[in-house]
Amino acid sequence: MSVTQQALTVGRAVASRPAHRTWHGGLIGSEYAWAIAFALPYVAVFFAFVIYPICYGIYLGDQPALYSELFADPRYLTAVVNTLIYVGVGVNVKMFLAFMLSGFFMRKRWWIKALLVIYILPWATPALPAYISIHWFVNGQWGMLNNVLYMLFGIDGPVYLNDHWMGLACNIGAYIWKNMPFWTVILLAGRMAIPQELYEAAAVDGASGLRKFAHVTFPLMANLYLVCVLLDTVFALGDFNATYFVSGGGPAMSTEVLATLGIRYAFTTALPRLGVATVMSALPLLIPLVFILMRKLRMSEGQL
Amino acid sequence: MSATIAARRRSSPLHYRLLRYWVEGISLLLGFVLLVWTVTPIYNMFMIAFDSHDDVFSGTVWPEHPSLDSFRVVVTQDFWYLAHFWHQFGNSFFVGLMTMFLTLVIGTLASFTVGRMRLRNGWLLTNAALMTYVIPASFLAIPLYRIMGIYGLTDSLWAVILSIVTFATPYAIFIFSQYGKSIPMELDESARIDGANPLQIYFLIYLPLMAPALVAVGTYALLLAWNEYLYNFLMLSTPQSMTVAVALAQFLNSDESPWNFMMATAIIYALPPIILYYGFRRYMAAGLTMGGVKG
Fold first, then answer.
1. What is the DSSP letter of B171?
2. Which residues contact B105 (CB under 8 A, 6 or more apart)?
3. What is the DSSP secondary structure assignment for residue A252, as one 8-state letter?
4. A133 and B142: CB-CB below 8 Å?
5. Which residues contact B51 (CB under 8 A, 6 or more apart)?
6. Structural contact between residues B270 and B209, judged by C-beta atoms closer than 8 angstroms
7. Which candidate, A174, B68, B71, B246, has a CA 20 to 30 Å from the CA of A224?
């Protein structure tokens, strides 16, 4: 074996070795004990406040009788339908708009930059004041929305929160208002990460705006968009505040979603087992989502 | 690329200019719609707060007799719902700062073990964090409430702090692991050769270099705690232990409440997070882009 060949083999061995990402020689002596000690606080939190509650919840909600009681309850069935609409419409409309708006905010104009600063205000505002304000904004008697409608067009607006569908629409609108800026910023960051050269190459090849979108922006953003939709589906499924503060679940509990109905059963009517069962009935939807998301998030490490 | 555009511009100047005006007009219109959409609920908040006590909801778009009286009432605690306002404000700060501190400590320690020391089976910990990250907090509220009772933390601020820390650390671990990859392992190596133990490496090398990520996650944890409502509401029941969020929602219990006082309270409550948010916007954005997503 010549020296060159030897050098090549060594070189290849060095090159094929994974990047130097761990401490040389593994953990030595007392370092192992330190490593365990450092991991302990999180492990303790995880067992005390995640695993234990999950097991306790399963114990509370494990009687089949609870579920037959639930399925016989029309309020529960309404809540299931509401949750599906809330999540389906709320997440997809918001994500689509956020995706389109992220393109809008890519434009280089001073007033668009200034607008972005104002546009993220709903994200910076705490949920509670924002939702309470929207609750009064759509109030049928003194709300600003109906006042403006009367001033501009002379119409008496409806009492929005006295109607099932309009109440639900208000909740979804409030949720979109509060969260759209956040997702717009995420998608904007994703768009900015696309190398400009790709667009220039596409332009040289004669691609127009729409084609650039279809062949450059869309393929590169698809994964991020999917992750965002899935994550937000989980967040929307667990969202308590919008429904609780905008419509309050009314009229006559017709706009409740599973998250608020569970809490209402458990704390207003003092039926904790029924409340846990309500929440647990979302598991068939939640568990697949959690698995897909865990895979996606682990794979996308360092790429998002 | 600029050459092709210039060529096109020359070939059909009128067409090109019309198109540009059209795009510009549409984006101005869109900008205006966005502005109205964004600002309306915030404007509504101020309008109600500026109403004087007698003519709340007098049916206008701007109060007839605007006054700052409701802010005076809140600041001087001059209403029985607001009797402990500043105490509750302090509670909110305490919960926020403690949540921030614990999240940073637990998060950095865990990510140091997994990312730097490469503890065997460290991936289990990462997976545990990921799983917690994707469980909605409201779904664990009922059992967690019961369990806090078992731990003897009824009506205690620590029940709230620990719950929020539980939901904030996964994100912290996620961000710290991402950011930690940019710190060369050789620094740890040379410190080890010089005889530093892991604790020294953690304090003297890891933490200082992680500063931007610490700011991002710290702000995130503080805002999460300040803005949280459900756990505050469930775990805190006496006026002495309440945070501002719970006190604010109490106004909704009665139909006769003075809404202008409530809105003034809401605005004062919303100010610290907004200031913090805009102050640390650069870090927040950096944290988001380096580590993925979280609302």
1. H
2. A41
3. T
4. no
5. B57, B58, B63, B66, B67, B70, B259, B260
6. no
7. A174
Cα separation, A55 vs B95, in Å, equals 27
Chain A partners of B263 at a C-beta cutoff of 8 Å?
Answer: 129, 132-133
The CA dihedral of B45, A149, B35, A180, to the nearest 10 degrees, is 80
* Tokens found for residue B247: 């006190």
Instruction: Choose among A124, A262, A304: nearest Cβ to B278.
Output: A124
Q: Are A92 and A232 in contact (CB under 8 A)?
A: no
User: Tokens 């912290």 appear where?
Assistant: B172
First to last CA, chain A: 46
**Residues in chain A closer than 8 A to B129 (CB atoms):** 42, 46
User: What pTM was computed for the model?
Assistant: 0.88
Mutate to test the interface with B, among A40, A62, A144 (most CBs of B within 10 A): A144
DSSP annotation of A19 reads P
* A239/B44 CB distance under 8 A: no
Reported as half-sphere exposure (CB side, CA atoms, 13 A), residue A28 has a value of 10
Contact B235, B80 (CB under 8 A): no
Q: Which of B167, B132, B139, B151 is nearest to A276 (CA)?
A: B139
Chain B CB contacts of A304 under 8 Å are: 289, 291-293
Nearest Cα residue in chain B from A248? B252
Most A CBs within 10 A among B117, B123, B163, hence the mutation to make, goes to: B117
Residues found in chain A: 304
Chain B neighbours among A 171-190 (CB < 8 Å)?
177, 179, 181-182, 185-186, 189
Buried b (16+ CB within 10 A) or exposed e, A53-70: bbebbeebbeeeebbeeb
Angstrom distance (rounded) from CA A234 to CA B139: 11
